[in-house]
Amino acid sequence: MDQPRSSAPPGEGGAGPVDTAAPGNPDKAPRTERGRRTLRKLLDAAAIEFGERGFHDASISGITRRAGTALGSFYTYFDSKEEIFQALVRYMSEQLRDHVTPLVQAAPDEIVAERVGLESFLRFVREHKEIYRIIDEAEFVDYASYRRHYETTVERMRQRLENGAARGEIRADAGEVHAWAIAGMNVFLGMRYGLWDESADIADVARIANDMLANGLRKKD
Amino acid sequence: MDQPRSSAPPGEGGAGPVDTAAPGNPDKAPRTERGRRTLRKLLDAAAIEFGERGFHDASISGITRRAGTALGSFYTYFDSKEEIFQALVRYMSEQLRDHVTPLVQAAPDEIVAERVGLESFLRFVREHKEIYRIIDEAEFVDYASYRRHYETTVERMRQRLENGAARGEIRADAGEVHAWAIAGMNVFLGMRYGLWDESADIADVARIANDMLANGLRKKD
Fold first, then answer.
1. Which residues of chain A have a CB within 8 Å of the CB of B122?
2. Which chain A residues have a beta carbon less than 8 Å from that of B150?
């Protein structure tokens, strides 16, 4: 269903590639470009609606109003508020991936890739502040989506570390524990310096964190 | 209101020291040992009630039933479900601190302290699985408590790093960004290996993560 990652555009703050938008039910996948555009409009509107109001207070009519679509369009793609929320978690997860991946893949080595990955994640958070509220609320609304978002994201990082280790760019034992540790680091730095602190120098935060990740806390002789 | 951290008992999985239990309103602080015991019973029961049912479905009568106290006792200390939830976030945050701090303080240097801190956190999560759901739900129920929990916890880590740097045990520039990065690392490892995976060897996870933290991802020559 998804295009290969390398074909995703590296655009920042945009609506993401069409292919990341999918309805709750695969049978309802749009068959025309116009349909895909409507679906994407609904998901972008849902991000604002859920991000501003939270799952409980968000409404389907609020989503279609923001999207500028008829209520019927909603039901062409989704059966319920739960279903679009679930699709939205996957959509945001994939938008994030499509934003970060091409930048990371262009990095000269795995250490730089992790710095670029963190910096581009911090920029994504600044542009899409609703991502924390939406992903975090999935813990309560749809635990399977919540867990899948992190497992998918971390598996991608683990694979990246494994490839970097195979190329001799980082320590040979880098694996799953390292990937979860780095993911947590990034998510917390995103909350502190992307979400809460508008004025933080994102490149600087990424540089400091990456230097610790690369070289460790231990004092060098 | 709190005792100094170093006087907290290092007990694991217990109800925590009496002093971490405080009602929502300081005017309602219990004056007798019996009152403090009741308050603690209510907070421990609230942890189970909110942990199992979530904020929305949890009820005051569910809390008093689990605590084995009369409904009147609840209102001696709290005015509402919101108020005991807020007190519970602080209580859990302080229980965690009181569990981890003495172990960390006994470590021979700051690198070991971070390993011991992570390992004892992972053990705390295994014994108090409800902590994730409660702290995470605070993001939606009481954002100020949510943010305060992390800011307080990370400030304690930052201070620890600063002291370790002053003693020459770690790199001299260790500061706020490093502290947030380490906190995120610990929270994600706790979710993955404390909460989701009962069978993971906690000491091993802490050792692997600490080795990356100490020495970095970079390949050593």
1. none
2. 188, 191
Q: What is the CATH number of domain A27-79?
A: 1.10.10.60
| Residue A49 contacts B, CB cutoff 8 Å | no
In chain A, the N- to C-terminal Cα span, in Å, equals 52
CB contact under 8 A, B218 and A171: yes
Residues of A in contact with B107 (CB under 8 A): none
- Contact call for A217 and B111, based on CB within 8 A: yes
Alpha carbon B172 to chain centroid, angstroms: 28
Asked if the C-beta of A185 comes within 8 angstroms of chain B's C-beta atoms, the answer is: yes
Euclidean distance between CA atoms B123 and A176, whole angstroms: 19
The DSSP 8-state label assigned to residue A9 in this structure reads: -
With 0-12 / 13-18 / 19 or more C-beta atoms within 10 angstroms meaning exposed / middle / buried, residue B201 is exposed
Model confidence pLDDT, tens digit, residues B118-176:
999 999 999 999 999 999 999 999 999 999 999 999 999 999 999 999 999 999 999 99
DSSP annotation of A3 reads P
Which pLDDT does position A31 carry in this prediction?
87
pLDDT tens across A137-195, in order? 999 999 999 999 999 999 999 999 999 999 999 999 999 999 999 999 999 999 999 99
Surface of A (138-157) touching B: CB under 8 A = 139-140, 147, 150, 154
| Rounded alpha-carbon distances, angstroms, from residue B71 to A187, B35, B75, B80 | 41, 14, 7, 12
Distance from the Cα of B182 to chain A's closest Cα (Å) equals: 6
- A25-29, B61-65, B152-156: least confidently modelled range: A25-29
* Structure tokens, A37: 């555009």
Give the model's pLDDT for residue B189. 98
Q: Contact, A74 vs A64, CB < 8 A?
A: yes
Query: How is domain A82-221 classified at the CATH fold level?
Result: Tetracycline Repressor; domain 2 (1.10.357)
For testing the chain A interface, which of B85, B188, B197 should be mutated: the one with the most A CBs within 10 Å? Answer: B188
Whether the predicted pLDDT of A4 surpasses 80: no
Q: For chain A, give the longest Cα–Cα distance.
A: 67
Query: What ranges do the domains of chain B cover?
Result: 18-215
- Report the alpha-carbon distance of residue B125 to residue A105 in Å, rounded: 36
Over residues B28-53, the mean pLDDT reads 94
* CATH level 3 topology of B18-215: Tetracycline Repressor; domain 2 (1.10.357)
**Interface residue B11 vs chain A (CB under 8 A):** no
